[in-house]
Amino acid sequence: MARIKGIELPDNKRVEIALTYIYGVGRSLSNKILKDANVDKDKKAKDLTTDEQARIREEVDKYTTEGDLRREINMNIKTHMEIKDYVGDRHRKHLPVRGQKTRSNAKTRKGKNKTVANKKK
Question: Which residues, listed in sequence order, are joined to residue 4 by a DSSP beta bridge?
């Protein structure tokens, strides 16, 4: 069982897909990592040798992933909230940040309906 950046990669999946279980690694970055590490992307994760695992670890360490990436994103959000710009205001109010309409959508972000008194007409 391969363990990279504290994440155990699933054994029965191809390495290309298994690497995407690491936060911050998608399909394109996964392919780039495997190409730079000279590892076949169609190989199963359980068939990786220790040498190949070490090369993949070295390549993954070149990118911001997992805890560092989460911390960086949270710091960016806090910065927006501190300077009180539009994006920070939307985060503070728990509304969609990227320009979506909120009249009929955004149920996930806004939460359960809050009834407003005397709204009926």
Answer: 7
Mean pLDDT of each 10-residue bin along the chain, 121 residues long:
88 93 95 94 92 94 93 96 95 91 84 77 63
| End-to-end CA gap in the chain | 63
* Location of each CATH 1.10.8.50 domain in the chain: 3-60
Indicate the pTM of the whole model. 0.79
Q: What is the C-alpha separation between 120 and 109, in angstroms, rounded?
A: 25
- Alpha-carbon gap, residue 106 to 92, rounded angstroms: 15
Q: Write the CATH number of the domain with boundaries 3-60.
A: 1.10.8.50
